[in-house]
Amino acid sequence: MKMIKLLGFAATMLATGTSAQNLSIAPLQTHDAVARGRPTISDGERAADSWAIQNLMSRHEYMHAAGRNLEELDNYWVSRAGKYASTATFGSPDWVMYGLETVRNAYGMKSHSDAEAGVKNLAKVDPTVKDVPENYGAGAEWVMHTSTTMMVEISGDGKTAQGAWYSPGMGVMPIYVNGKIKLQSIFFWEKYGGDFVKEDGVWKIWHLQMAYDFTPTLPDSMLERLNGQLGALALREPLRPTNGEAGERMGGAMPPGFKKPIFSYKPYSPQRASVIWPNLPRPYYTFGDTYNNCNCDQEIPK
Asked: How far apart are CA 125 and CA 32, in angstroms?
């Protein structure tokens, strides 16, 4: 199988001497210009594929909000048996999951087991809730994102696509303490970058990269109604932000299959310069011609 070298975002910057903003805001070329005489998809195909990518990203958001990460991976990411499985990645500013099996275990299976544990824990303290499959997700974390400000580019050869979104959202996580429930919370003001490939005529997620701008806790007033619903079960202690999202947390050393990203995006600070990253998609002909949302250094199928 032919392979090409995929360099991460930071390595590309170091090699070219360009900045994050230069990659995103340099003058755009037309699709015909980047094709350089090579056969290219039609404007109609490009429009239809762009909406297919937006729908795919929205499926990610809906499945994640329902705690169905494992089903998302098995249906909307690249095939476990396909040539892109080993190079699939999911990244944050602190880590990159390498390979679909790593993503499936850490983002998929971990979230699934957390949801199963949630209903078991809830059933122990709340007799009105039964530990049955129909209550999957009760007592577990709830996380929702939106995918706004869509920017999608389809490659001229029609084989890959890139997208960028702002993704505001929030999360609430029940913590069980001595028969009581303490609600932790988080606000997400973050961005997504994504690379997508077409497998057997269907668009699939290949690389996803998150960039957190601001992740404060929710104000107490926003959780007052939830604590009111819990009644005597509520442990009313000061809230603190959760550390990451379901299926993505870790402590100490990197788990197997995780590596540090090449470029670590820094959250907002009054002392931080403005950064446009992940890079905004630009017209390109084939995947090797553009930057990527892997944020890693790996060999990929050609």
From this structure: 63
Q: Cα(295)–Cα(268) distance, rounded to whole angstroms?
A: 20
Give the model confidence (pLDDT) of 181-199 as tens digits.
999 999 999 999 999 999 9
CA gap 158, 164 in Å, rounded: 18
C-alpha 207: how far from its chain's center?
A: 9
Distance separating alpha carbons of residues 252 and 260, to the nearest angstrom:
13
When pLDDT is cut at 50, 70 and 90, the band that residue 213 belongs to is: very high
CA 12, 17, 20, 22 dihedral sign is negative
| Residue closest to 166 by CA, chosen among 155, 151, 185, 187 | 151
Q: Which residues contact 17 (CB under 8 A, 6 or more apart)?
A: none
What is the DSSP code (8-state) at residue 158?
Answer: S
pTM above 0.85, yes or no: yes
Q: Is the Cβ–Cβ distance between 119 and 136 less than 8 Å?
A: yes
Q: Please give the C-alpha separations between residue 48 and each of 39, 44, 59, 205, in angstroms, as whole numbers.
A: 18, 6, 17, 17
- Does residue 165 contact residue 191 with C-beta atoms inside 8 Å? yes
Tokens linked to 4: 């090409």
Query: What is the set of domains in the chain, with CATH numbers?
Result: 3-301 (3.10.450.50)
* Beta bridge partner(s), residue 166: 148, 191
Distance from first CA to last CA of the chain, Å, rounded?
8
pLDDT of 23 above 90: no
